[in-house]
Amino acid sequence: MESVGKSMKRVDARGKVTGEARYANDLKPKNCLTAKVVHATIANGRVLSIDTSEAEKVPGVVKIVTCFDVPDIEFPTAGHPWSVEPAHQDIADRKLLNERVRLYGDDIAAIVATDNVACERAERLLKISYEEYDPIVTVDEALSPGATPLHPNLRKDNVLLHTSFRSGELGEIDYEQAKEKAAQKYGADQLLEQTGVYKTARIAHCHIELATSWAYVDTNGKVTVTSSTQIPHIMRRVISQALGWPVGKIRVIKPYIGGGFGNKQDILYEPLNAYLTIACGGRPVELEISREECMVSTRTRHAVRGEVKALYTRDGKLLARTMDEYSNGGAYASHGHAITASIATIFKDLYHDEYGCRSDATTVYTSSATAGAMRAYGVPQAVFIADCLVDDICAAGGFDPLKFRMDNCVGAGFSASNGITYYSYSMKECMRRGAEAIGWEEKRKAYEGQTGPVRHGVGMSIFMYKVGVHPISLETSSARMILNQDGSMQVELSATEIGQGADTVFTQMASEITGITPDRVYIVSTQDTDLSPFDTGAYASRQTFVTGKAVKKCGIEFRKKILDYASYMLDRPAEELMIWQNRICEKLPEDESTKIDPAAVWADFPDVDFKPFDLKDLPNGEDSILRDTGNIEGRPGKALLDMKDLAQTAFYSLSRSEHITAEVTSHCKENSFASGCSFVDLTVDMPLGKVKINRIINVHDSGRLINPQLAQAQVHGGMAMGIGYALSEELLYDAKGRPLNDNLLDFKIPTAMDIPDLETIFLELDDPMGPFGNKALGEPPVISVAPAIRNAILNATGVAMNELPMTPQRLVEAFKEKGLI
Amino acid sequence: MESVGKSMKRVDARGKVTGEARYANDLKPKNCLTAKVVHATIANGRVLSIDTSEAEKVPGVVKIVTCFDVPDIEFPTAGHPWSVEPAHQDIADRKLLNERVRLYGDDIAAIVATDNVACERAERLLKISYEEYDPIVTVDEALSPGATPLHPNLRKDNVLLHTSFRSGELGEIDYEQAKEKAAQKYGADQLLEQTGVYKTARIAHCHIELATSWAYVDTNGKVTVTSSTQIPHIMRRVISQALGWPVGKIRVIKPYIGGGFGNKQDILYEPLNAYLTIACGGRPVELEISREECMVSTRTRHAVRGEVKALYTRDGKLLARTMDEYSNGGAYASHGHAITASIATIFKDLYHDEYGCRSDATTVYTSSATAGAMRAYGVPQAVFIADCLVDDICAAGGFDPLKFRMDNCVGAGFSASNGITYYSYSMKECMRRGAEAIGWEEKRKAYEGQTGPVRHGVGMSIFMYKVGVHPISLETSSARMILNQDGSMQVELSATEIGQGADTVFTQMASEITGITPDRVYIVSTQDTDLSPFDTGAYASRQTFVTGKAVKKCGIEFRKKILDYASYMLDRPAEELMIWQNRICEKLPEDESTKIDPAAVWADFPDVDFKPFDLKDLPNGEDSILRDTGNIEGRPGKALLDMKDLAQTAFYSLSRSEHITAEVTSHCKENSFASGCSFVDLTVDMPLGKVKINRIINVHDSGRLINPQLAQAQVHGGMAMGIGYALSEELLYDAKGRPLNDNLLDFKIPTAMDIPDLETIFLELDDPMGPFGNKALGEPPVISVAPAIRNAILNATGVAMNELPMTPQRLVEAFKEKGLI
User: Fold this and answer.
1) Residue A287 has what pLDDT?
2) Residue A543 phi, psi dihedral angles, 5° rounding
3) Are B530 and A482 an interchain contact pair (Cβ–Cβ within 8 Å)?
4) Are B446 and B652 in contact (CB under 8 A)?
5) Residues on chain B touching A248 (C-beta within 8 angstroms)
6) Mean pLDDT score across all residues of chain A
7) What pLDDT was estimated at residue A611?
8) What's the distance, Cα to Cα, between the start and end of chain B in Å?
9) Which spans in A270-369 are helix H?
10) Collapsing DSSP states into helix, strand and coil, what is residue A322?
11) Which of A16, A28, A246 sits opposite B30 (nearest CB)?
12) Nearest to A220 among B248, B485, B525 (CB)
């Protein structure tokens, strides 16, 4: 490999530090109008009237629209690929502006003016009257008899959707019957049970760049929206739905972005922005929301409550588990039930229960901030519940949590009910390496029988994470490559760079396949839905895997066209040629001595009971092109032609002018699982309720790394996010449904001072499903951090903290309750 | 034909009238800095020093660069396709800013500031010292012995280039020898000679939108220039040359444009703009020049002088002609000698001389505004010279100008020396129809023997015009088509809409081939050189012909992909299907009764001695796909599938997801000639020097018209421009080389009050070289107007006006000289 696997500098590094990176706001035109959304000041009810007459008199005000003006169209906002089957489409439950108020901060009107001051003056002059209902902020309130249904047209109660998954014998019998069977097999006295209720908090994404967009109607009548989004092509389709316009009349542009974490995998204010420019005769209108609006009126991570029960034997064998889980979905469906279903799935699959597992999960509408996608899409909640339970079992049963996990975790070759198979399985190897690195055995021993107010603990948690959304949903990606006159090239994709380094790894992949060096590969970072090859966007840790295949397939096609032209110029068969470091070279047979033997790679993992893959066994035969590394496996001989000379001739030849480009679709029908775990060593100062993380180690098997340094940075970011999730972050509401800490002063994300050195270990296990042996990495790092910290606190103090975040207040209260302080 | 040949409304009509059309200035970002060019205030000399110290202190000034700071790189500015052969490359004779001042208004420094006021204040504080040489404003001054060479490194004298073309026997013998031969053949007393000196004026293009651009350095380090240009891809290459950066590091974006007429077929201030943003750390910098700057510091039409001689027989047969022509090229090469060579070519080819023609032409550097491309690229000058000469012959020899032209004009089947053949010849038919429309014979008779101060005249002139630049230069064009989820499509090209209606006719062509109705064909009007398929741009009346072939070829490929998918969905062979009005239909055999018989079309032109073309006789066999109208020749049967349903399935199918796009290159190796003529009836008020045009008729054979209404509009625009050229426009200089009328108050373009009703007649003669039987139309309408007016004045008054423009002052002076007033 020439480019893949190397830690090349980010292609956007210079732009980021010099300010050359062009964010949505940097490109707003000079003559842009400004829009401001008017939010409801009640949490549940109905707008009766909005008198705009005084507000319209404010100088500079161009247009005021209210919930009584907008199209009577309900639309969905989830960043999901579309389905042509109505049953699989997302829930359409909101309008551009809502007369029915379902949360404090709901969008009820919008003001467009020449400047922000005029907007604010006008807003103060609006006269709004409401009919107010009781707020139903919590899941219990929403489910209580007589609670107002928030979406009576869709659901008579506030249950958005319910899932009941069962595995193993629990598919046939219930938990009590399983218990009876187990009693017969093992003896009733050999059985132990553990119950628990575990809760996670609602948190905000806190991306640095706020949700922002600007829109205008273009020369051809298309409404053109420039937005900081992860999903430009999906946004185009949703704006089309929201306006009732054909999708061809909508164009979305996504420039450089300052973070998303899943919040921008939803459609936020862009349809309203599109509507506002139309309402203003096509003039450019910008709509940037504030931090406070972003925290309550965009999307949050689902707060969940999991009520669980486990049956296991005295010698540490899991027999059965059940979970009844409730997710607070907030006021609108957003991603609907998909995230809660993911919680139920991973809780069930992460461990093997002899009699199986029942996993029930419910998403509930409440009159509070809408929950949506956030890094790892429910899996952090699932793993928190599953791994709190495991350590509580271990504490009760006297098991070593590492050994218990080794014995009971998901096994090699596991195939999920939807057919995803754990091809390159490494869960146990990850655990082993993490345990060794942190000194698990020694520490567990050393920390036994501690006394005094300051105690030490070591804890762990594991995760599995699938790559992309196949086969639940569509995975499709197109790529286009364009040769320049100087022998450099553009790569055009719609899998977005959102800070995670996608543009850099795609550059490396394109370079790898084409033989054009990375400094001459220009990734087109801005997406334009009119032109950019279709791809659903940045989410589900899908890009290096799904889009990576499109890049590879396109690169093979592009390379073929270049070599065809070289063959014409040099009058030699294309098969005798290869591209190497920007030159057309003679292709020599590959040197056998340098060829990688896949079996040898796997030999490093003695414990992995998995055989190297024969390519012909791949489930999707069509995809064989993706496994073909083509002429890059040859060895370059004599250089014959510079790419620049080839390109100039191809452009300007009077005998054969040909502008070399390639464009392909890769429909991805493969999937795999990434594995990993977190190990934490920490100190708890009980009187202060203060947790100090001494060491934290994340171990990841994400297959082959495209860029090790970026991979490490990705893991660091996830770990820091996990620490905030564990210890400090929670979006709070009062009983009336009013947000209490919707700002970065009161909502506590960790600062650099709060983050210890972050240690990462990678197992680069070649995955046969990945275009370069790679699989998911973007989201996994956040998953197992919080439960590992929780379990280390349990190890240190014997106190099971069952609710996130584990703030000093909660810790002190728990330690007091246990008489420890 | 479903779409081609219909007068559909311009696709940008709504955008133009609502203000939704987005011009370069509309999209400038909020934080843009402003640049101002500092121009020399001498016409010939050298900058000795520029002291910027006081200017830099002006608040708001960010950067001042002078001719002493810029890269020491000379670059060309012509909007020509590149050649890989250095001998065929354009002349590189200027830097970003020039220390050597070659015209009044040369660019010697640039100021960048936060606003224009700061720029102007700073400019006033610059201290500039010059060494001054004698200005050489006219061709005679520039060629006089001892004149300072303006480009001593390139040319020892001021002759940019000289051409000597000869046809017929004059290739072997000289004029005097031909005369001897003719005397032997016809008898010396049967021979007549005519000499003349004809002059045309330097004029400005006067596009409404000034030359304007803005630039920044983007996230990926590319310098990105948004410019109002006709030639984005050529501009990219030239900026690369000017900066010494690889072309891949340059990106040019061309938004909606407010006119160009060839001035924007040159690279104007964009390389400087690119340099300035780099100098300012990549911050956005705008550079819009004023009307005054545009008139003297961009490009102009060459002022020419043609000294001619003709030999003919007493019964009106042309025997031989010679021309010695001089073009004032101004200070820089711009398009070099190409325009002057075009003058020499057309003078030679437009008429048939028994013994041939000698056509010598010279382009001369002078210290005045640079001459470059302007609508019809020298042909108006050539035809003015040729057709003044013809009417002067007719006046002297007593011939009817119509009959003389019928007898002597270029003939059917004519093949130019470079191989371009007059396939669909119609020159005489054009003349016949024009003569009939204006009532030529009656009027010529009626206007005989007039007396008194107010007289009437009728005049005519003819032209031939080739389509595109093949084989002199490269003609290549790529196209891309993209299917949307709603069954609509984008068409992406780099042949620019510059007001001429290109976007509309390409929409019609794409619709014609694909079966998707024009309202669902979205032409991508903005070009982006990183992404848009390569095409050299808008010039040479090449687009409907050259780019039209690319649209056709791409449409065939795109349609094939759609029908392949339809075949998959419907489980029927693609050959049985066609697309008709946004539906996949059964394809029935074409109805013989509605099929067009090409022979029948030609039968309308009894006098055209040309046989319908057999497709297999096409010179370029590869191109046969362009002659294939594929399944559109079928007849639609039962509708089977809506394009929207097909598109949605293709995007979102879980079994076969495919994003249907197509991209092709068409290397055009064909050419043809368009023909036409102008007829004018006018009244001259001799004491007032006032010319009133009573009727003016342009007759055009541009092959089949894609959009008759737009074609007519195009002709109207050209005729109006021709009237200005004839009667009022001239950019004047004083003896020191200072412009005298560089503004729209003193430079007289015609207003609506000056333009009579404009009559147009089209002959739609199917041309076998055109993708839809079409050929050049954009430039031709301007060509023959001025000589027709001149010849009508000659007819009215007997006075031969041999210099353009024929202003009242010149007319009065001429009438006085002749004793008419």
Assistant:
1) 98
2) -70, -50
3) yes
4) no
5) 484-489, 520, 522
6) 94
7) 45
8) 58
9) 270-279, 291-297, 338-350
10) strand
11) A28
12) B525
Predicted complex ipTM: 0.95
How many other C-beta atoms lie within 10 A of the C-beta of residue A656? Answer: 14
Transcribe A18-46 into DSSP letters.
HT-S-BGGGG-BTT-EEEEEEE-SSSSEE
Cβ contacts of B30 within 8 Å, gap of 6 or more: A28, A29, A30, A32
Task: Write out the two tokens for A442.
Answer: 């020694």
Q: Which residues pair with B680 in a beta bridge?
A: B459, B696
Q: Where in chain B is the domain with CATH 3.30.365.10?
A: 136-197+304-373, 476-589+634-667
Q: What is A136-197+304-373's CATH topology?
A: Aldehyde Oxidoreductase; domain 4 (3.30.365)
Q: Which residues 178-237 on chain A approach chain B with CB closer than 8 angstroms?
A: 216-222, 237
Q: Which residues of chain B does A18 touch, with a Cβ-Cβ cutoff of 8 Å?
A: 281-282
Q: Do A531 and B492 touch (CB under 8 A)?
A: yes
Question: In this predicted structure, what is the pLDDT of residue A589?
Answer: 84
Of A22, A222, A480, the CB nearest to B522: A222
3-state SS, residue B647: helix
Q: Are A454 and A683 in contact (CB under 8 A)?
A: yes
Domain with CATH 3.90.1170.50 in chain A: 14-133+211-288
Count of positions (residues) in chain A: 821
**Residue type present at position B477:** S
Measured between CA atoms, how close is B484 to chain A, in angstroms?
6
Look up residue B6 and give its DSSP letter.
S
Chain A's closest residue to B478, CA to CA, is A659
E strands, B622-771, in order: 635-642, 661-667, 673-685, 690-701, 758-762
CB-based contact (8 Å) between B17 and chain A? no
pTM comes to 0.96
User: Is B221 in contact with A478 (Cβ distance < 8 A)?
Assistant: no
User: Which pLDDT score is estimated for A769?
Assistant: 87
Return the number of CB contacts < 8 Å for A and B: 190
- Residue B657 in contact with partner chain A when CB distance is under 8 A: yes
A217, A522, A651: residue with CB nearest B20: A217
Does the structure show a pLDDT above 80 at A667? yes
Which region holds residue A187: left if phi is over 0, alpha if psi is between -120 and 50, else beta?
left
Virtual CA dihedral for A262, A268, A270, A271, nearest 10 degrees?
130
Q: Kindly tell me if the per-residue pLDDT of A201 is higher than 80.
A: yes
A519: closest CA of chain B, how far (Å): 10
Instruction: Collect all residues of chain A within an 8 Å Cβ-Cβ radius of residue B489.
Output: 248
Cβ partners under 8 Å of residue B713, min gap 6: B501
Scan residues 399-418 of B and list those with Cβ closer than 8 Å to A: none
Instruction: Return residues 584-623 of A near B (CB < 8 Å).
Output: none
Contacts of A451 (CB under 8 A, 6+ apart): none
Please give the span between the terminal C-alpha atoms of chain A, in angstroms, as a whole number: 58
Put simply, the answer to whether B522 touches A657 (Cβ < 8 Å) is: no
Q: A476-589+634-667 architecture in CATH?
A: 2-Layer Sandwich (3.30)
Contact B26 A31 (CB under 8 A): yes
Average pLDDT per block of 10 residues along chain B, 821 residues long: 91 93 94 97 98 98 98 97 93 98 98 98 98 97 96 95 97 97 98 98 97 95 97 98 98 96 98 98 97 97 98 98 98 97 98 98 98 98 98 98 97 88 89 97 97 97 95 95 98 96 97 95 97 97 96 96 98 96 91 57 48 46 48 79 97 96 95 96 98 98 95 98 98 96 97 96 89 94 98 98 98 97 93
Beta-carbon separation of A219 and B525 below 8 A = yes
Which residues of chain A are within 8 Å of residue B32 when distances are taken between CB atoms? 30
Query: Which fold does the domain A14-133+211-288 belong to in CATH?
Result: Aldehyde Oxidoreductase; domain 3 (3.90.1170)
* Torsion sign across C-alpha atoms A292, A297, A300, A302: positive
Amino acid identity of residue B332, one-letter, is Y
